[in-house]
Amino acid sequence: LGQYLGGIDPATPLFGxxxxxxTAQLEGGGLVRLDVGLGESPAPPAALAxxxxxxxxxxxSATRFKVVLHGAGATRPVLVQAGPAPEAQLVPxxxxxxxxxxxxxxxxxxxxxxxxxxxxxxxxxxPDGTVLIEDRRLPFGPVRANDLxxxxxRGDLYHFDPAGTPVRARVAxxxxxxxxxxxxxxxxxxxxxxxxxxxxxxSGRSPVTRPTLITTEITLVAGERRVELTTTFDNQVAxxxxxxxxxAPLCAERLDAHxxxxxxxxxxxxxxxxxxxxxxxxxxxxxxxxxxISDGVSGVALESRGLPEHEVLREEDRSTRLALTLLRAVxxxxxxxxxxxxxxxxxxxPTPGAQEPGLHRFEYALVLHQGDYQKGRVLADAQRFAAPAxxxxxxxxxxxxxxxxxELGPETIALSALYPSDKGGTVVRxxxxxxxxxxxxxxxxxxxxxxxxxxxxxxxLQTTRLERKGASLxxxxxxxxxxxxxxxxxxx
Length: 492
Prior knowledge:
By secondary structure, this protein is mainly β.
């Protein structure tokens, strides 16, 4: 491999053909994908020089290679930024050669150290593997993130019960792996010495440790205010909890958690709010798309994909710590010897699968914003992060409509579902994602014959508030109210 990638001679046959090009792409976890183009005649050596230089920088950190051979020229993945793309709309994209617009936002390498930046937003790595996230438009200092902490857990599937001393990274390194202009990426690697399990008496953690590499890729996309983090590691130890801590330089006055169909204000101190009993109140809480902390002037939102547990703690220096649980590995359904409950909550049977061995990938994002979650428009951003646009290549010659199938307003009205009905027509479910009443408007891009307000079982309501004017509909909604509408076109 070194012969062909380091000092390659394109005139030397490779599998009976000649090299026409090589591209490399880092896929995470030390895996590098090589796309190798093979043709009937060799490429000039000068044409491969840039390919060789780019690949050479990846060799030092690569532990595995995935080689894909192509019978023609090597393929080069292209990153395209296009939009805006409203909900429920196909947006045609045509790729042509040309120069970028001079006013287009650009992501790239930061000039403050090992980091990346996009306009006023920057992410810079610290020696311990944490990163400082700063938005110059906001009136508070940098937010420290990617503070990974591993704790011993002697609990069960119901309860976390701490054991031993928390573990942080002993070695960390960072490098920029993508420099824009559409997307910039920072790769942080942290090495932790994780105890193999609990001690024999379950009072602490084992003195025997296993070196564990945890990799986090931080991404900035041009024009976006969201900082995306993807953490991966291979879990080969037991009885522990891994969390990612975010340290915000503000004293949180409110905590808002998205709960699927509403955003609910939660107590900052659950123990004080819920009181005591045979089962102590857990300091952790649950969320669906995001959890947000704010002091009324500014805030920090944590958006996650499939990671529903958080904890918030106000520090003595008037900062606030926000913790996201990445993984819990425990070996019991329930136990009766925990410090957080006076009795077993269920059957005391072992659950070895709950130790979660193997490779894991965790995806979450941070948004720094003004005001609370409403003023910061966090919900709309979290919905885009949870369900990003999907690229498709349609077959045939079907024209693409320049308008969405249904267009909603105002911006607090969210599309909850859109699907064809077995009874004919299209079902649209909308949510007033606001603590205030709203007048929802819905405009169809197709000739509308009938609009009926229905229940979730698609039965017409006895009374309806739905008003129609041509292809547009209006429906008053209470705070956090869900409504379902059956639309039939004139072609149905």
